[in-house]
């Protein structure tokens, strides 16, 4: 497959801070690619350089084989961009807003109305944008990025203000867009979102890519312990520690949890004791990979 995006050794510095410190990545045609990282990791700055919104201090970047900087007008109709915060035209309704955005790229009014339906805003079509909730405004922002049917879509934390139902609805929208052949680049703090949607992810911190690859591969390479939990009281913590394959045991009086690298052996031992009440098995996830690479310290 050919590459929609090729970045080599991208660098951007603000004073003493290396916001982007030697980032290299490729995104293939039709790929769903995620960029993950804590606050201040450099995700948004990297995205803005690729989009042509910000000039890099060093390195090379090409999108569809062309440089996005200086602002490349030939690339604009081929890209859709949803930023972390969006400014809308004042006093326009959601329908008028979307039709205005679409008209800049030759999208029809009918397409704009269809997109309102797609993002679940058809019932807010005649509502002024100032009166939309935060989640509704976020969905309108995403609709504006998609209304002209771009080949490449950039989404910067698109579900940050959405409730669980709206998040899942948007996932379905994004899957359909990607299945239709469009390339999507996503930044998100939701590891489950990246694990479900992305073909590959890059985990960033301090301006650098720490690791990249398919989510399942990154999880498998972590070699983290699985956690087998049962209802507290069906087996004592002392007995659980003697089970074959048990590495660590905790009991909070609601659930007894056994950390293990051999979950089948632990489950069989529990079954032999008739102690499978409430049994659950949780393997490692992308969140475990993320925390292993970036640490657990809270960052505001």
Please characterize this protein's 3D structure.
The chain is α/β, with parallel strands linked by helices. It folds into 2 domains: 3-220, P-loop containing nucleotide triphosphate hydrolases (Rossmann fold, 3-Layer(aba) Sandwich), CATH 3.40.50.300; 225-283, Alpha-Beta Plaits, CATH 3.30.70. The chain has helices at 43-51, 94-103, 109-118, 134-146, 164-179, 191-197, 215-222, 237-241, 263-272, 286-294, and strands at residues 3-14, 17-28, 32-36, 58-63, 79-82, 152-156, 183-188, 200-205, 208-213, 226-231, 246-251, 255-260, 280-282. The strands form 3 sheets. The protein has a 6-stranded mixed sheet, sandwiched between helices. Strands 11-12-10-13 form a 4-stranded antiparallel sheet. Strand 11 and strand 12 (255-260) form a beta hairpin.
């Amino acid at each position: 497959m050919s590459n929609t995006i090729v970045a080599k050794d991208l660098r951007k510095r603000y004073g003493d801070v290396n916001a982007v410190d030697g980032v290299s990545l490729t995104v293939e045609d039709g790929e769903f690619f995620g960029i993950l990282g804590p606050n201040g990791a450099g995700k948004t700055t990297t995205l803005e350089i690729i989009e042509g919104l910000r000039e890099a201090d060093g390195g090379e970047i090409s999108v569809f084989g062309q440089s996005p900087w200086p602002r490349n007008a030939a690339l604009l109709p081929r890209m859709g961009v949803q930023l972390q915060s969006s400014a809308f035209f004042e006093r326009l309704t959601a329908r008028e807003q979307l039709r205005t955005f679409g008209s800049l790229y030759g999208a029809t009014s009918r397409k704009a109305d269809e997109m309102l339906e797609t993002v679940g805003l058809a019932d807010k079509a005649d509502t002024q944008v100032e009166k939309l909730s935060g989640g509704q405004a976020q969905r309108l922002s995403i609709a504006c990025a998609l209304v002209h049917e771009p080949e490449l879509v950039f989404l910067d934390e698109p579900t940050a203000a959405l409730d669980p139902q709206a998040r899942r609805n948007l996932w379905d929208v994004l899957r359909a867009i990607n299945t239709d052949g469009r390339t999507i680049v996503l930044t998100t703090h939701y590891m489950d979102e990246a694990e479900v949607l992305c073909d590959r992810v890059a985990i960033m911190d301090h301006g650098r890519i720490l690791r990249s690859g398919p989510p399942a591969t990154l999880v498998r390479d972590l070699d983290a312990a699985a956690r087998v939990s049962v209802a507290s009281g069906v087996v004592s913590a002392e007995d659980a520690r003697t089970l074959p394959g048990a590495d660590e045991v905790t009991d909070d009086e609601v659930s007894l949890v056994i950390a293990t690298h051999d979950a089948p052996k632990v489950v069989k031992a529990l079954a032999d004791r008739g102690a499978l009440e409430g049994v659950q098995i949780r393997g490692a996830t992308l969140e475990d990979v993320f925390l292993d690479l970036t640490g657990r310290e809270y960052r505001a």
